[in-house]
Structure formats: structure tokens, C-alpha cells
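Researcher: Here's the sequence for the chain we discussed earlier.
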Amino acid sequence: MKCLCVVILLWCAQARALDRTAEESVKALLEEYHKIATVLNNNDTVKSWAYYSNMTEYNQIAMEEAMMTLGKMNMEWIPKTKPYLTADLSPETERMLKMAFWSPMEDEDKENMTNLLSDMTSIYASGTVCLTPERCLEMNPGLEELMANSRDYQELQDVWEKWRTNVSRKIRPVYLQYIELMNKEAVSNYFSDYGEQLRVQYESATFEEDMVRIFREVEPLYRLLHAYVRKKLRRVYPQIDARGPLPACVLGDMWGRFWINIYTLLVPYPDQPDIDATETMLDQNYTVHQMFRMGDEFFTSMGLKPLLDTFWSRSILERPQDGRKVACHPSSWDFDDGKDFRIMMCARVNFADLAIIHHELGHIQYFMQYAHLPLTFRDGANPGFHEAIGELMTMSMSTPQHLATVGLLKEVPENPEMSINYLLRTSLHTVTTLPFHLISDLWLWKVLRGDYRLEEYNTRFWELKEQYLGVVAPVPRTAEDLDPPAIFHISSGYDMIRYFTRTILQFQFQEKLCEAAGHEGPLHTCDFYGSKEAGDLLAKAMSLGSSKPWQDVLQVMTGERRMSSRAILRYFRPLQEWLTEDNIRDQDGVGWGDSWTILEDQRTVDDVYISC
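Model: Thanks. This is the structure I predict for it:
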């Protein structure tokens, strides 16, 4: 027996020695990989920047070649990792190994995927709608401004339809090939489909169910907002049914994603000071450069990192005037060398763009905070984290308290009417986006799982839109249409659930940063500008990148390990109560179609939920 114990001890010691050897070998392997991958990733980003900032055929070919080179390098490294896939490694090393090496596509598939993405981007970026033969508008700024400011129902409907005829119909065959190819890659990586591969980023076996559950918790507030918006819009558009869904073309942008541009039609108390500071900015002769400097100062006031000189010399902050075609959709860029971070944006002097600038600078700050990590870990804890940080800054800088601090509002009226105005405006940028982002990926995941037949893809999409959003297409759709890629993100291959999770997370972050800043009073009045304590907490979480499971990072930031609707419902509780009283007084009812119901005085806000 004694001899057997000695043999076992010797075997365990040998096994530990082998594990230590494997650990050291994998670390050395990853170090070598990161040196090579950093150079090639940087080259890939440089070529992509060159294309998106000057969309010529020459730059497109160069970008595609860089992407192919990067993919080929990853393919060559896969065999080197196989001896260690079952080794007993430390949690950090095992995490890095798994995250660094996906089984990449074959060269032919990789080239096809690159070409498909380029084609969709090109179709989208070159899309126009002609109002007359002589007047054709691109998305930015022409169509964006029209959809935001026009109150002519027929014009909005026509432009909405023409954008989808001119753009998403052309994207349709390319997009179908793209998702088929991504499904093929996912299966080769031992996923059931590409949807499962996308969800694995969220490191939860019940992620899809959890997101639907969270929306159901916020849904009573959404339905109250929907009813209020419907009532107000009917004064402008008699085409809207008092108990029906909303036409997608009247919600303030091309997609009905953000309803903020129709705030002036909805403002509860118009006699209160305007929260949109555009007029004040113009009166004070703001410039785009000044707006970015203002955003930078927001972060440095919290003790966070300032923008580097290269940001100012290499970014594109306004539309170039030399005639080149640029992808104007605001985007933040990490060049993977730990020192080059840029924004590409065709900014203009207005309050909406000032808010976007703070959002994009949130991404830049995140890039800088985790730049010290190995390349594999230079990312958000999950895709929603990156977006949440940006929206968090936008929300804080847009409070009346902050606007007064920076001279964009003369004073902060101490009355509930101003609060309701602010909360409603904020809800049009947050709460109303939740079902939009949720169903975009619910639809995609169902497509990828094979739940829908090809000929019913678009029909099913609009069924989900009506079910969850109470929004319908303003004109009949046909088998030729595929409306999801009518928006930049989907036609560029991004998942949309990141924007759902970001909205939930940003309020959880807001709650804890306000506690760190020592804020007292309602959550919606908090501005953590200037708080070093809030900055320290934020930097601690951001500096972890994706080196830990997002649940660990969330715990560092908030003390919680789950996404929760508690904070967003706490934030909007005063608005929810006001909307309930308003709805009951005017007998508006909530819901649409068969789910429409009247609210009664004895019912609580939580009783509003109607099962879909």
C-alpha cells in the first residue's frame, strides 16, 4: 500500500510538471503569436481606415488583401495550438488560448466573406434617394435630416420605401450569401449555427431567454411610452390608428431606432427650457473641434486618460471637402498598436452630434484603458460593455445639471415638469430602442437556426416588429424585400443585441458611478462629471478588457453578476408614474390590435403587461 502511494505521488508530481511545461509552452506560443498578430492587425486596420476614409476600388482591394493576409496567418497558427487544447492550464492562459484561436475559414470562403462585406458596405454607403430627378440625397446628412425634420407623412413614407428599394433590396442577395457562409464557418467551429457562435460572447447558456425576460420586465414602461407617442403623433398624422401600431416612417429616423428626433412633437411641458442645446451652441459659435475638446475634458475631469496627439492629427471629425466618398457613420477605431486611436465622423454643430461625440469617446477611453493587455484581451468584457460606456457618458452629459455646469443651460429649474421633460427625452434614446435591438437578433437567430423559410424572412421580421414594438411597415412589403440590412450595423455584419445589453448595463453602471460620486437625490439628476471616485471605479473595470468573464467585470463595477432591469426601472420610475396618470386621465389605453386595453385607476403600473 505504501509503495502504491509513492507511485501515485510520483505520478501526480510528474503530471504537475507536465502541466507546468504546457503552461510555459502556451505562454511562449501566445507571446510569439501576439507579436505577429499585432503587426498584421494593425496593417489590416490601417488599410480599412484608408478604404472607409476614401472609398476607391484601389483602397478596397488593398483592404481585402490585408484581411486575407490576417486570415491566412491565423490559419497557419491553428495547428500549433492543438497539442495544448486538453492541457491543464491556468484559467487565464486557457481563456486566452480559446479566445485567440478560432478555426478560421478556408481561403476561398474567407475571400468570399471579405468580398460580401465589402459589397454590402459599398451598396449602403453609395445609397441615395432622389426626391426629384435633380435632387438626390445620401444618408448623411441629407436623408437623416429629412427623416428627422419632415412632418409630411407622404414624403416620409416615400423616402422610407425608396431607401429600402434602392439599398436593402440590392443588399438582400449579398446578405443571404453572407449569413449562409457565416453559418458554415460556425458549424466548422462546432457550433450549431452562427447565432450560437454570436451568443457565446456573452458566456451564458440561457442568454437568449435572459434577454427576453429582461425586456418583459421593462415592457410595461415601453407600452406606456408607445401609447403616449401614438396619442401625440395622431395630432400630426391622422393616418395613425388610435388603438393601432405605429408606422415605422414617422419615428424620427430611417429605421425607427431612435425616437429622439420627434421629441419636439411629444414634449410634455413645452414652456420649460429646451433640453436640446443646439441653439445655444450656435449662439456661442461652437465648432466641431471644440465639441471634441469638450468631450475629452469630460473624461479628464474624472481623472481618466486624455486623448493622444495622434488622435487629433489622424482622426476625421468633419466631412472632407475634397470630394472623396467617406463612410460617415460615426465609428471609433483601435489600431491595435496600443497608441493609435481615432474617430471617423462627419460631425456638425448640434446637440445630437455632441452627444454622439461623448459616446464615441467612451469607446476611445475603453481602448486606452485596456491597451496594456495582450492583444487577445483588448476588447470589452462583452460587446454590450463597450456600447454601455459610451451611452453612459452621453446620458450624464445631457442632464440639465451638466448642461448648466458647462454653460449650455442658464439654470436648472427645480420643478418636476423639467424632470418629466428630461426623462421623456432620455427614454426616446434608451427605452424605446430595447425591442428594436432585441428583435433584430431574435429574427437573425431564428433565420440561422432554420426556423423560417427563405420566402418568409421579411414577413417574419415584420411580425416580430409588430409583436414586440407595435410598429409596422408603412407600405406593403414583397418577396423581393429584406428590410433588416437597411440599417448600417446589420449590413456591416454587426450583431444588434449588443445595443440591447448596453442599454441595460448603462443604467446599472450609472447607479454605481453615482453612488461613488456621492450623489444624493433621484438617479436621473446625477452627473458624475468631475468625480475622481467615479473615474477610478470606471477605469478599474475598463482596464480588465476581456481578460475576465463579463460577470466578473460587472461585479467589479456594480457588485452584481447579472444584468438586471432594476436600475433602468428605478431611473424612469417618475416618468412611468406620470405616463400612467396621463394615460388614465385621457383614456388612451395601452397596446395595439388585440392586445389594446384600457388602464383603470385601481391598476398599478406593474399590471400594464399584456402577454404577447
